[in-house]
Amino acid sequence: REEVALFSLPAILALPYGVVCLKERVKEFDNGSGRISLTQLLADKRFHGGVLQERSYGEITSIVKAGSDSSILRDLPPGANTIQMLLQRHVDYIIEIPSFITYQAKQQGEEGQFLSLAIEEYEAPVLVAHIFCTRGQWGEGFILQLNEIIERERGTEVYREIIERWYDDNGRQVIREHYDQLTLGSN
C-alpha cells in the first residue's frame, strides 16, 4: 500500500467489533471488566448470537466462523435489523462494531438500551485509522493540508467528541484511555 498511497497522521480512533447486548442483560455476559472472551462465550450453550453474513471480522474471523458452523451464531442477512433482533430476543447478542449499533439504535429511537463488551481475542483494544490517497503531486498536497488540520484540531475537545460520538459509555471510556497516546503521540 505504501508504494501507491500516502497516509495522513492518525486521524480516527475506533473500537473493533464487540459483543453487543441489551444493557439490562449485560451482567449475564460481563464479569465487571467490560471485556469478554469470544471463545468462552461461543462455548456457552445458553446464549445464541448473531453475525452478519459475508463479513470479515479481522483477527476473530476464524472464531466467528467456528461459532457459525456450530449454530451458536446465526448468520444474519446483510441489512438485518440487529436492533430489533436484540430487543425481541431473537438473539442474545450481536457481534458488531459498537459505533454502528449506537448509530442504528439512535436512528430507531432505541438509544441507550445496548452495551458493547470488548472482545479479549483482539490484540489491540482500539484501531487507529489514517486517511490515504494516491501518490502524486495532488495527493502530496492534500495529505499536507490534511495533516495541518489534524495537527491543529486533534488536541481539542471538539475533535475527541466527534470520535466518541457514536459510542456507549464503555466505548467512550476505552477511547479516552488511549486517545492521547495514539492520536497525540503523548503518554
What does the model show?
- By secondary structure, this protein is an alpha/beta fold.
- Helices cover 41% and strands 20% of the residues.
- The protein is built from 8 helices and 10 strands.
- It has helices spanning 26-29, 38-43, 61-69, 82-87, 98-107, 137-153, 157-164, 169-184; strands at residues 5-7, 12-14, 18-22, 35-36, 49-52, 73-76, 93-96, 114-119, 127-129, 132-134.
- The strands form 3 sheets. A 6-stranded mixed beta sheet has the order 4-8-3-7-5-6, sandwiched between helices. It has a two-stranded antiparallel sheet with strand order 1-10.
- It is globular.
- The chain starts with a strand and ends with a helix.
Reconstruct the topology from this structure.
Blueprint lengths: L4 E3 L4 E3 L3 E5 L3 H4 L5 E2 L1 H6 L5 E4 L8 H9 L3 E4 L5 H6 L5 E4 L1 H10 L6 E6 L7 E3 L2 E3 L2 H17 L3 H8 L4 H16 L3
Parallel strand pairs: 4-8, 5-6, 5-7
Antiparallel strand pairs: 1-10, 2-9, 3-7, 3-8
What keyword list fits this structure?
single chain, about 190 residues, alpha/beta, six-stranded mixed beta sheet, two-stranded antiparallel sheet, 8 helices
Q: Assign a percent range to the helix content.
A: 40-55%
Structural class based on helices, strands and sheet pairing: alpha/beta
Q: What's the story with the biggest beta sheet?
A: 6 strands, mixed
Radius of gyration based on Cα positions: 18 Å
The sequence of SSEs as H and E is EEEHEHEHEHEHEEEHHH
Poorly predicted regions? none
Spatial strand order of the main sheet: 4-8-3-7-5-6
Q: Separation of termini?
A: 29 Å
Give the total of beta strands: 10
The portion of residues forming beta strands comes to: 15-25%
Q: Mean pLDDT score, rounded?
A: 89
What's the shape?
A: globular
Number of helices: 8
